Amino acid sequence: xxxxxxxxxxxxxxxxxxxxxxxxxxxxxDRQVIGILKPFIAEDLGWSEADYGFIVTAFQIxxxxxxxxxxxxxxxxxxxxGYLIAVIVWSIAATxxxxxxxxxxxxxxxxxxxxGESANFPAAVKSVAEWFPKKERALATGxxxxxxxxxxxxxxxxxxxxxxLFGWRLAFVxxxxxxxxxIVFWLIYYRHxxxxxxxSPAEFEYIHQDKDETQSEKGVSWFSLLKHKQTLAICLxxxxxxxxxxxxxxxxxxxxxxxxxVNIKELVLPLIIIYAVSSxxxxxxxxxxxxxxxxGRSIDSSRKLVIFCSALLAIPIVFVSQLNELWLIVLxxxxxxxxxxxxxxxxxxxxxxxxxxxxxxxxxxxxxxxxAIGGALSATFVGLVLQxxxxxxxxxxxxxxxxxxxxxxxxxxxxxxxxxxxxxxxPDAEKPK
Length: 433
Description:
- The chain is mostly helical.
- It has one domain: Growth Hormone, Chain: A, CATH 1.20.1250.20.
- Helix 5 runs antiparallel to helix 16, helix 11 packs across helix 16 and helix 14 (299-314) packs antiparallel against helix 18.
- It is 77% helix and 0% strand.
- It contains 18 helices and no strands.
């Protein structure tokens, strides 16, 4: 692998990355609010554990349904339009939570939220593929993906303060308005690299330096993607592991409260630590694989090594359900969330390593669909397990080993991470904008 000469190229791509980071942060603030408020809303409205499981499942089903169309929509109409519509939809849904009165109405607004939020990661991954050369993509992905944990960090701080002062309904309204602020900056600044007036020729050439990315940027059908075992590997790993992150988001606040007896104010610091460590894990995992590649190691071995190391961090959570010491629990969960985010940064990047740019949105959507289906099934499963057994032991035991299983699947089905030659079978009208 030949080293690539570093030159002063400009920083427009990093400004674009900032937009992706803030969108992901807002996405997760809106998503996380209900998990933080669950003890209050459950007491106020009389929810059971099963009721909450069904509400979470409604979000997951909609998230899966949204991924059926969001990837293809982004590949057809482009990131600028697709991201805009997605944020409008999920911001309306987020504020509408304040109007919900029972389980069914909460399921309705969660469903709409899931539809809108489903486009965030396909859009962000597609943007990274368009705006960054391969050697920077894992780092860029780690940075924008860290927005998910920054959102999870900010959510308890913002939500607890608003709830104590004004009640839980206004917490949904004020957090939901953040997306509309982001939209203004998106419309002003975001363009495809080919049409961005502030992008210098030197930075444009730097972004497009990869000689193996010569395929058309026209969209690719799911049928074309499904012919390849790499697609099976990525979709299967998302199916069996995405639910763990959903579990961390939607149940960990309640788990900590019930296991250690902390109240909503006392939950803030533990949750900040958990999600801050996970953010560091995502950025570190992206940086490490990018560093290995820049040092001359192959993309294949770099990504797989980091995925393996990430899997090891999740193993200790098998012991969490047997503990009652708050800070030891926080430590083990923090390691697991860091492992997940490191894993996610590299798995998202593998998509842009393997598939042509015109297929990145569709492939991210397809794999995200499988993750959302797994998440929907597991949300109901987790709710019923807790309703019947009142124990998290089985759930943490499964979560501790799924990432090692993922690594084995990647090793078995993706012998070498390298670009696939996939020809577009979509008409010219479906070229991305």
